[in-house]
């Protein structure tokens, strides 16, 4: 009967039909306060860049302008060097973004978890 088929369609795959309706996905971060401000972004794999945030979407895809990539030491991939590379306008894929922070007020500190070698 059509009624049974309709009920079966509602629970097909363990999901209700209401879940299949297109809903606007909300972002876990509100980046609107950082629009036109310089932010620093860290990516999976260790790359780091900073630029002016021009746009974003709920998946955390970012558009950065005037982007600068901070180069890593070839011998130690976890260590940044003083070298930079100008990238210009960049679209950052949200799935690879690990960290987003404002550039202002950010400063490097010594790692408090490394035991200092005396002598």
UniProtKB/TrEMBL annotation:
InterPro entries: Lsm7 (IPR017132), Lsm7/SmG-like (IPR044641), LSM_dom_sf (IPR010920), Sm (IPR047575), Sm_dom_euk/arc (IPR001163). Its main location: nucleus. GO terms for molecular function: RNA binding. One of its GO terms (cellular component) is catalytic step 2 spliceosome. It is found in: Nucleus. GO terms for biological process: mRNA splicing, via spliceosome; nuclear-transcribed mRNA catabolic process. The keyword Transferase does not apply. The keyword Ribonucleoprotein applies. Belongs to the snRNP Sm proteins family. Component of the precatalytic spliceosome (spliceosome B complex). Component of the U4/U6-U5 tri-snRNP complex, a building block of the precatalytic spliceosome (spliceosome B complex). The U4/U6-U5 tri-snRNP complex is composed of the U4, U6 and U5 snRNAs and at least PRPF3, PRPF4, PRPF6, PRPF8, PRPF31, SNRNP200, TXNL4A, SNRNP40, SNRPB, SNRPD1, SNRPD2, SNRPD3, SNRPE, SNRPF, SNRPG, DDX23, CD2BP2, PPIH, SNU13, EFTUD2, SART1 and USP39, plus LSM2, LSM3, LSM4, LSM5, LSM6, LSM7 and LSM8. This is U6 snRNA-associated Sm-like protein LSm7. It comes from Chelydra serpentina (Snapping turtle).
């Amino acid at each position: 009967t059509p009624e049974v088929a309709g009920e079966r369609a509602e629970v097909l795959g363990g999901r209700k039909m209401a879940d299949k309706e297109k809903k606007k996905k909300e972002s876990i971060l509100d980046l609107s306060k950082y629009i036109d401000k310089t932010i620093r972004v860290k990516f999976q794999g260790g790359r780091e860049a900073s630029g002016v945030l021009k746009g974003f979407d709920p998946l955390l895809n970012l558009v950065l302008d005037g982007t600068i990539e901070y180069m890593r030491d070839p011998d130690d991939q976890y260590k940044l060097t003083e070298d930079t590379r100008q990238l210009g306008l960049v679209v950052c894929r949200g799935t690879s973004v690990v960290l987003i922070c404002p550039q202002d007020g950010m400063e490097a500190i010594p790692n408090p978890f490394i035991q200092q070698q005396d002598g």
